[in-house]
Design goal:
mainly beta; 6-stranded mixed sheet
């Protein structure tokens, strides 16, 4: 049996319920080996087979597997990445004995096993946005979305905390699983297992998209501090958003809700507590290539889960650059019989799409908002003045950025070459013009023989450029020394 710790983790302890049998009644048939230990177990005590085998306490019983005589535990381990269980008959070093009638010299049976994993890497959040991050006052249901990744046990829970005005401590508003991962990302209880136990080596997704909703109508008016965190399966926590000041201004209509001017009339089953939900297939945060369109499906339902049909929902968008404002993206969408809003979002820049619903068109606030964050990769062309060169000649690279608009000061372009054993290496950097054109020259100086080189251009990400970083197609050139 072999148990390997996931990437970026190590084994700090384990418990195994085992029994073993062999061709004779001697107790030291089964040995345990550790790999990735600074020194081998066998070298630590090479003269005591019982310590090596930890079998001196008895062979255990196969009739009642999870019993005290079968339990063996190790704790406070360091540097262990793999555990191997193996069986040996007779002397650990000679390995000689007579087979049984079943031709079994030694058998090691593992009835149950649990490992304590040490995960020291924290999850990392990116692409954070939503109505909760907007400046100014907040009322009604506000949302926040983000992407998270983890290098060890996986992205597990998202925690929303609030420190109310006049309070010294944060109190939890919600604590939910980011992505159930098909039921794998769920804590279980096993005998001898730690409090935070899972049935899988990597129970949760290493990359997941999270979304939280905060109903500010349940929070007193005033200035509070909000904090949103994400936790991996090992309990390591990182801040997604905040601590940030949250100014709640829910204008009362006599029931503690937001200010309304009329009865709910926008659609069948219209409700002041309606909810817009982006489908799991669409997801609240998407990465797209330049020029790609996206089919979006959002559902509008009331607080009882009934679809709201025939409702007009406003569509807004805002580019992902500092100071950008919301503007109308298109004419309002109208929900179908199942409360679904279908729309093929046209190609464009990195931006946030917002669907906003009012139960009554005259209301001063939206009763539900759903944000869809789109991250779009930029695009540039890459060409050379010829395909074949000799050492000493100069290659004239050029290209044009296709993804617009482009900042007046241009965007940085890195020219890279592939080096075997190292990967892509940057050897030239140039800023494009405001029209997206760029040129880089490179003189060949050290080629011997005939070599086919691979080049590519990388468009860097810029705070004033509403696109994500990208790479061009690979250009192959032949060079003779």
């Amino acid at each position: 049996m072999h148990f390997a710790a996931p990437v970026e983790t190590e084994i700090s302890g384990f418990v195994v319920w085992r029994s073993f049998r062999g061709a004779t009644t001697r107790p030291n048939f089964t040995i345990l080996g550790y790999l990735s230990w600074p020194s081998s177990v066998y070298a630590q005590d090479a003269h005591d087979a019982c310590v090596i085998a930890f079998g001196c306490r008895g062979q255990g019983t196969q009739t009642a597997p999870v019993r005290a005589e079968n339990r063996v535990a190790f704790a406070n381990l360091r540097g262990v990445r793999d555990i191997y269980f193996s069986a040996a008959c007779g002397s650990v070093y000679s390995g000689s004995c007579s087979p049984t009638s079943q031709d079994v010299q030694a058998a090691y049976l593992v009835q149950a096993f649990s490992a304590d994993l040490r995960d020291v890497s924290n999850p990392v959040a990116s692409d954070v946005g939503g109505t909760l991050t907007d400046p100014g006052s907040h009322d009604g249901v506000e949302s926040l979305s983000y992407n998270a990744r983890d290098a060890g046990s996986g992205v597990y829970r998202q925690i929303v905390e609030l420190r109310r005005q006049g309070s010294d401590a944060y109190a939890p508003l919600s604590n939910t699983v980011v992505d159930a991962n098909g039921g794998m990302c769920r804590e279980i209880a096993l005998p001898g297992a730690p409090a935070r136990g899972f049935a899988y080596r990597v129970p949760c997704k290493l990359q997941a998209s999270g979304a939280v909703d905060v109903d500010t109508r349940r929070i007193p008016n005033g200035r509070h501090d909000l904090r949103v965190s994400v936790e991996d399966a090992a309990g390591n926590r990182s801040t997604v958003y905040g601590p940030a000041r949250l100014r709640v201004v829910n204008r009362s209509n006599g029931a503690g809700g937001p200010a309304l001017l009329g009865a709910p009339v926008n659609g069948t089953n219209a409700s002041d507590h309606a909810r817009l939900r982006i489908s799991k297939r669409t997801r609240r945060s998407r990465r797209l290539r330049f020029g790609q369109r996206l089919r979006s499906v959002t559902t509008l339902r009331d607080e009882h889960g009934r679809p709201i049909s025939g409702a007009r929902v406003k569509v807004l968008e805002r580019r992902r650059v500092p100071g950008a404002r919301w503007h109308v993206a298109r004419k309002p969408l109208v929900s179908g019989s199942g409360g679904r809003l279908r729309w093929t979002i046209p190609a464009g820049t990195s931006r946030t799409i917002r669907l906003a619903y009012k139960a009554n068109p005259d209301n001063t606030t939206y009763q539900s908002i759903a944000d869809l964050r789109l991250t779009v990769r930029s695009r540039t062309s890459l060409r050379a003045d010829r395909r074949r060169y000799r050492t000493g000649q100069t290659i004239h690279f050029s290209g044009r950025i296709r993804s617009r608009p482009i900042p007046r000061g241009g965007v940085l372009i890195d020219l890279q070459a592939y080096k075997p054993g190292t990967g892509w290496v940057t050897f030239g950097t140039k800023r494009s013009s405001g029209r997206g054109r760029w040129r880089i020259r490179y003189r060949l100086v050290s080629t011997s023989g005939t070599v086919r080189y691979r080049f590519r251009a990388r468009v860097r990400q810029d705070g004033s450029y509403p696109y994500a970083a990208s790479r061009s197609r690979v250009l192959r050139l032949l060079v003779r020394g």
